[in-house]
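The records we work with from here on pair a chain with its fold. These numbers are not coordinates but entries in a learned vocabulary of local backbone shapes. To see the layout at work, look at the sequence and tokens printed below.
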Amino acid sequence: MVGQFESGKDTVQELTESAATHIGNIATIITGAVRDIARETGDWLTDVIEMREASLRAREDEEQQHGVVPRVNSTDSTDAAEK
């Protein structure tokens, strides 16, 4: 028969093992989430950079074709109408 002390020790051991397993699983989930967030953020920033570069190339093309740089802000539309 198992004594009270050994039974208590076994309970603490089981709880410790269970906690370690669950904490390890939680850490794995968090690590995966951080990795996925970093990947998505990087992909998004790559898209932003590519759009910016495409916009700059389009402006350069427009300038080469027409000798002017198109204006894009709202106050420029009134300036263009006045000309």
User: Anything to note?
Assistant: The radius of gyration is 32 Å. Helices lie at 4-66, 74-82. The longest helix spans residues 4-66. The chain has two helices and no strands.
